[in-house]
Structure formats: structure tokens, C-alpha cells
Design brief:
Layout: H1 9-27, H2 32-38, H3 43-50, H4 58-67, H5 73-86, H6 101-112, E1 115-120, H7 131-141, H8 149-162, E2 173-179, H9 180-184, H10 190-203, E3 209-214, E4 228-232, E5 241-245, E6 250-253, H11 256-272, H12 276-289
Parallel strand pairs: 1-2, 2-3
Antiparallel strand pairs: 1-4, 4-5, 5-6
Helix pairs in contact: 1-5, 1-6, 2-3, 4-5, 7-8, 10-12
């Protein structure tokens, strides 16, 4: 799924290159304003580049490397090539016309992640949805403005492609904590829900997938603000990221104090939730109840 041999795709590469350029600028004791002036831009442009929020112009990268006095030609060539790779389109861009702009960055980060921990209160997490369940969720999300069948099919295909990160020789690790109400909510009808529960029972046995259910019996628990995901990456240049999706936008958090709060919350949720073995039993009971 990686584009042009890029580890993790263009989103991850932009963040990696941006972090590298930031360290070089700081080592050279150069301000963002000074760096911006050198590339005919502003301090805010340098900030966006260093955060990996925008694409890189090769000329800008070359000028910054000169400003930072990088004399190693091999390293200079490597970083310039990295900038070129970071501008390659990700596979998900063929869905740009039917997905919101704020979601595109998440798709790139999801593909690059080594570990994804997610907490869900309304739907089965997208990476664990069956096609039938996904189709029902997509239809539900559009309310009174139903999408054409062809667009729904493409969105289901997108979700199916995303799930490939859980397969292969080096799959991502996925740890989901799901509220029990999700497993009882008949999205798409009883038959669709039963198929979804059966799939959860199957996929949660994979060595790289952990599924825990927050049972009603747990009472209240730590997270009160809704669903969120924590993404961790193998490359040290990629900081952990918290992803929070809203109805018309998304928030990406990478400040250490924010990360600490969400990690503590996720850990608390995992303690309050059923164990994976108990989750399997709960799924079995729910499936029997739908027979």
C-alpha cells in the first residue's frame, strides 16, 4: 500500500522531513522568521512545513539546507529526494472527491502507524467493520441526503482498503475499546449486526488485534468526551498523535501534555473494560441472542 516505496506514505514523510528540518534550524540557531525570509515565505509557512502540514517545494528545501549549512552532499541528496517522495499522491487521494479534506491526513497517518489504540462509543471501529455494516453506517451518516449507490460502494471500498494494514507480514497493532452499547445497536438490522459480531469474534483472535468491551456493569468510566484514537509510529521522527473526529472537522493533537492525558485515559479504560477472554464470551452470548 506504500506509495513509491515511501515508508508510511507521503503524510508520514512530510512529518519526518519537517521534524528533521526543525532540528537543523534549531541547531543552526536560526529563527522561523529568518528561515521563512530565506524561502520567500513567512514564519507561519516554516511552522506548517516543520509540522508536515503542507507539501514541500524542492527549491524551498534546497534553500533551507543551504541556510542551515548542510555540507554533506549525500545527506543533502537524501533529504531532497525525501521532499520529492513526500509530494507523491497517497493511494487514498483517488477518493478525494467523496471524503473531507480533514480526513486525508488521518488516512496517511493510519497507514504509517505501528500501533493504533481507539476508543469508540457509537460504531464498531472502521478497521473492524464488515462491508455490510460499513454500508449501513455510511448511509446513516448522510441522513436525509442519501448518496448514490456508486459513491457508497467507493466509500465501502476505501474502508476495506484501510483494513489491509491489519494484514500481511508486518501488520499494524490495533487495540480497540468499545462501549457495550455499540454491540447492541442494530445498525443495518439484526442480520447485519450478527454478521458484524461474528466478524469481531474472528478478527479479535488475530495476534495483532486486541478488542475489549466496556460493559454496562462497569458503570461510569474515565472518558466523557467521546471517541478518540492514539497513533504511535515506529520512526522516532514521528510523534504520537491523538485523533479526535467531529461531525465536520477533526483535531490532531501532538503536544506532550495532551498526549499524556489521553494515554492515561486510554489506560484507565483498558482497566475498566472486560479482558479479551471476557470479550469473546460476551460476543458469543450476543451472537446467540440474535440467532
Amino acid at each position: 500500500m506504500t506509495e513509491q516505496g515511501a515508508p508510511g506514505g507521503p503524510t508520514a514523510l512530510r512529518i519526518m522531513l519537517g521534524a528533521h528540518l526543525r532540528r537543523m534550524r534549531e541547531d543552526a540557531d536560526i529563527t522561523r522568521a529568518e528561515a521563512g525570509y530565506a524561502i520567500r515565505g513567512s514564519e507561519s509557512k516554516i511552522s506548517r512545513l516543520e509540522l508536515g502540514r503542507v507539501g514541500f517545494k524542492v527549491r524551498d528545501v534546497e534553500d533551507l539546507l543551504t541556510l542551515y549549512q548542510l555540507k554533506d552532499e549525500a545527506e543533502r541528496t537524501r533529504l531532497v529526494n525525501l521532499a520529492k517522495q513526500a509530494n507523491n499522491p497517497g493511494w487514498w487521494q483517488r477518493y478525494d472527491d467523496i471524503t473531507p479534506n480533514w480526513f486525508h491526513s488521518y488516512l496517511g497517518l493510519e497507514m504509517a502507524a505501528e500501533l493504533i489504540r481507539t476508543y469508540e462509543v457509537q460504531f464498531v471501529p472502521g478497521l473492524l467493520q464488515t462491508p455490510e455494516y460499513a454500508r449501513a453506517v455510511i448511509r446513516l451518516g448522510r441522513g436525509e441526503r442519501p448518496l448514490p449507490t456508486a459513491e457508497i460502494d467507493r466509500l465501502v471500498a476505501l474502508r476495506k482498503t484501510r483494513q489491509e494494514i491489519l494484514q500481511g507480514t508486518n501488520p499494524a497493532r490495533f487495540w480497540a475499546i468499545v462501549d457495550e452499547s455499540v454491540l447492541r445497536r442494530p445498525i443495518g438490522g439484526q442480520a447485519v449486526l450478527r454478521g458484524q459480531l461474528e466478524y469481531l469474534a474472528e478478527v479479535s483472535r488475530l495476534p495483532n488485534v486486541t478488542l475489549q468491551i466496556l460493559p454496562f456493569s462497569a458503570g461510569g468510566y474515565a472518558a466523557t468526551g467521546g471517541a478518540f484514537s492514539l497513533l504511535r509510529f515506529a520512526d522516532a521522527d514521528l510523534p504520537d498523535i491523538v485523533y479526535i473526529e467531529h461531525l465536520t472537522s477533526a483535531v490532531y493533537l501532538d503536544k506532550l501534555e495532551d498526549l499524556d492525558e489521553y494515554v492515561i485515559t486510554m489506560d484507565s479504560l483498558s482497566i475498566a473494560a472486560s479482558t479479551p477472554r471476557q470479550t469473546q464470551q460476551l460476543l458469543t452470548d450476543l451472537i446467540k441472542a440474535l440467532a
